[in-house]
Amino acid sequence: xxxxxxxxxxxxxxxxxxxxxxxxxxxxxxxxxxxxxxxxxxxxxxxxxxxxxxxxxxxxxxxxxxxxxxxxxxxxxxxxxxxxxxxxxxxxxxxxxxxxxxxxxxxxxxxxxxxxxxxxxxxxxxxxxxxxxxxxxxxxxxxxxxxxxxxxxxxxxxxxxxxxxxxxxxxxxxxxxxxxxxxxxxxxxxxxxxxxxxxxxxxxxxxxxxxxxxxxxxxxxxxxxxxxxxxxxxxxxxxxxxxx
Amino acid sequence: xxxxxxxxxxxxxxxxxxxxxxxxxxxxxxxxxxxxxxxxxxxxxxxxxxxxxxxxxxxxxxxxxxxxxxxxxxxxxxxxxxxxxxxxxxxxxxxxxxxxxxxxxxxxxxxxxxxxxxxxxxxxxxxxxxxxxxxxxxxxxxxxxxxxxxxxxxxxxxxxxxxxxxxxxxxxxxxxxxxxxxxxxxxxxxxxxxxxxxxxxxxxxxxxxxxxxxxxxxxxxxxxxxxxxxxxxxxxxxxxxxxx
Lengths: 244, 244
Fold this sequence. Notes:
Structural class of chain A: alpha+beta
CATH architecture of the domain at 95-213 in chain A: Up-down Bundle
Oligomer: homodimer
Order of helices and strands of chain A: EHEHEEHHHHHHH
Largest sheet of chain A: 4 strands, mixed
Low-confidence stretches of chain A: none
CATH class of the domain at 95-213 in chain A: Mainly Alpha
């Protein structure tokens, strides 16, 4: 199939769609970011809602991001990244290593969920303002007990594999997602992240290395890249970060 | 590699390890449930903690379940189920369908996480008793807004694919996990689940069909099967279920 990929994701926030975009960009794969097109060209929220409400053919998707490739309709960011990674040389070929790449992607997803949980502990469909007290408690716990452990985990994965790559001896899709996770954590918790990351130099070096890859650097400088904001997973609420 | 698989998971609760056990059992694959061995045979918590603290060779694991197969060390239940599913004819062979199976597995994992969040909304490492009020709010929201949507989603997946199988035309690993999810939800929310499942007959039929598969039925009747209890993901707290 040579037609371009279609990505469907909320047009106003990076969120979990960004994990997919980074793989598409590193692969230099042609894609249309459908919901970001003008409404008169089929963009906006409408095409997303059609999917989620079951009005499109193909396997139903519970939520965006959704990738359409020919007849294939695929949801869940980790599954999409694995699919694209395998097609574009951004996943290990050997079965065991291919699965270890998936394992790492799923751990990135777990940390992402916990970071989201700091501002939406009760449920993601209640406004932050209506769960702010629980949020403050959740984020204190996340920063005290979890963030350092997560970062140290990935640091150890790098260490065990020679320091440069997460798995195998080349860049893989979980590395691109880990870059985004680190960027998101630094945005959401500038003080908490800076403190925790003092212990994980290999991880910071990986983040910088990914940012300098030519295609990623070009993407980050383009208007295709969405800035973090107060929607989506990684939000900066000063009251949820470490206090001085 | 013909040596038996080794599974490492908390010995006292079904949790996410059960997704892995169901694939091993349906595949009739030889495995050792290491932590459930007597301590003098290497069982108990010690071998698990060794992994989590980085004291074992191979790719580090952030948390159990962990599968060891020869040289391969693999964590994350969805990655382990995918690995076993692909090896034992419990995953579609075609790439797109193989990825759709993973998508479904990840959605089962999302519902599992939300179910866990009803009793541990602030953080999984704080006691339930210390986050009970937030738990009550989270579970009310889960039952009102989320559970029905999740079940309807899987019902629609079945419908679109002819009613019997989730993907392709044979049993796959996400079906075994969906069985466990439905059992867990029925255990945790007897009233809430019964009400929501009135709308999803195909899903209930799938649950019963999986339970009657000869190897699964034999497993469920064996002492290898752990009952739900007040540890792990699916817990019955009457105050978190629908009231009369």
